Amino acid sequence: MRRIFADSSVLIAGCGSRTGASHAVLIMAEIGLFKLVISDQVLEECDRNIRKKIPAAMPIFTELLAAINPEIQPDPSLEESSQWAAIIEAKDTPILAAAVLANVDRLLSLNTKDFTAEVAAQSGLIIQTPAEFVTEIREIVGKGLSST
């Protein structure tokens, strides 16, 4: 089964709105199209930010986590994170390192300012926004349905 790493921006957006690509990603994970992978830091960031900014979404977040049952990776060490400091903002190095160490198929983020094509190339990860990922899934499904 494919394993997809999502950062906190995707989870927060997906819980904060019942529409949009981030929510669609969470629904796809819930129905088992792929295994959602997150790190301890992602979980903590989501909990902190949802409680602070959109507390009404906290029950949705809790329910989705229970339904999705994500694979939760431990946070990378400082040494594992710092090796990426030359290509991405320091605050994002633990997320990039966690995704690389988890050996996932791709990383999804709404942070296109920091998770760039250069970061993707140097890390060896496919990095997409939720919208890009959903578009790719639609194309795959469309091809599959048209061949029958």
General description of the model:
Helix content is 56%, strand content 11%. With 148 residues, it is α/β, with parallel strands linked by helices. The chain has one domain (3-146): Rossmann fold (3-Layer(aba) Sandwich), CATH 3.40.50.1010. Strands 3-2-1-4-5 form a five-stranded parallel β-sheet. Strand 4, helix 7 and strand 5 form a beta-alpha-beta unit. The radius of gyration is 15 Å and the shape is globular.
Topology of helices and strands:
Blueprint (H helix, E strand, L loop, with lengths): L2 E4 L1 H9 L4 H10 L4 E5 H14 L4 H11 L2 E3 L4 H5 L10 H10 L3 E3 L8 H7 L3 E2 L1 H17 L2
Parallel strand pairs: 1-2, 1-4, 2-3, 4-5
Helix pairs in contact: 1-2, 1-3, 1-4, 2-8
What key attributes describe this structure?
alpha/beta; globular; 148 residues; Rossmann fold; five-stranded parallel β-sheet; 5 strands; 8 helices
